[in-house]
Amino acid sequence: MKIAIVGKGGVGKTTVAAVLSRLIGRRGYSVIAIDADPSLNLAQALGIPREVASKAPTLFDEEEFVKSRTLLPGGAYRLNPKVDDIVERFGIRGPDNVVLLKLGEVKRGGTRCLCPEYALLRALLSHLVLGRKEIVVLDMVAGLEPMSRGAAKGVDYMLCVVEPSMKAIDVALQTMKLAEDIEVRKFFIVINKVRCDRDVDYVEKAVGRDRVIAVIPYDESVAEADRRGVSVLDYNPEAPIVVAVENLRVKLTK
């Protein structure tokens, strides 16, 4: 099973991705968690110590490695670079059967996927989605960039995290349309930071009630865990967000 988690910046994608990855891993599955957001916060959210995560390489910071896999003599580049060993070379082992891969930021490229870095990225994501047996959870870059490049094509589930705000809903509606264009058949909304029933009604009216797969209450445990530099799952295993994401896990893996 391959799950892409998308949405506007700041809505809680990384926290949802981390808790979901570990809860799935606790059921005995091997999970590859992909941090495709340049902010690279997934390690902390997973509970990987800062000193461990900081020592591990970030894929797109390794320029010589990227060049060795993508560039050909004369300035051309490979459309299908070798990527099947990247998880083993760059992966960081975390708790609960989760391996983290930090992608980092692609530093070059225009509006089309023509640069070597994006050739590597597309090949890697295709390999992760289609060529790996593990469960893969992708914490995608904020906004619509991964969708416009088709980087999430082929995933089993696309979960768009939405907070009760018009900006987050606008991104969700645009992402929903782009998901249809790349034939993602299971596109669902996760409503996060819910304080009251009106928040849920507000989002459901905009996106459709049948699209909502999970409702996560606003949880101060998330902010406190972040201040302490730990995973919310380790800070408070019974936190409301953990309970809600466990219910989501059951729906996805039943």
From TrEMBL:
<dbReference type="GO" id="GO:0016887">
    <property type="term" value="F:ATP hydrolysis activity"/>
</dbReference>
<dbReference type="InterPro" id="IPR027417">
    <property type="entry name" value="P-loop_NTPase"/>
</dbReference>
<dbReference type="GO" id="GO:0009898">
    <property type="term" value="C:cytoplasmic side of plasma membrane"/>
</dbReference>
<dbReference type="GO" id="GO:0005524">
    <property type="term" value="F:ATP binding"/>
</dbReference>
<dbReference type="InterPro" id="IPR014433">
    <property type="entry name" value="CooC"/>
</dbReference>
<protein>
    <recommendedName>
        <fullName>CobQ/CobB/MinD/ParA nucleotide binding domain-containing protein</fullName>
    </recommendedName>
</protein>
<feature type="domain" description="CobQ/CobB/MinD/ParA nucleotide binding">
    <location>
        <begin position="5"/>
        <end position="231"/>
    </location>
</feature>
<keyword id="KW-0547">Nucleotide-binding</keyword>
<dbReference type="Pfam" id="PF01656">
    <property type="entry name" value="CbiA"/>
</dbReference>
<dbReference type="InterPro" id="IPR050625">
    <property type="entry name" value="ParA/MinD_ATPase"/>
</dbReference>
<dbReference type="GO" id="GO:0051782">
    <property type="term" value="P:negative regulation of cell division"/>
</dbReference>
<dbReference type="GO" id="GO:0005829">
    <property type="term" value="C:cytosol"/>
</dbReference>
<keyword id="KW-0067">ATP-binding</keyword>
<dbReference type="InterPro" id="IPR002586">
    <property type="entry name" value="CobQ/CobB/MinD/ParA_Nub-bd_dom"/>
</dbReference>
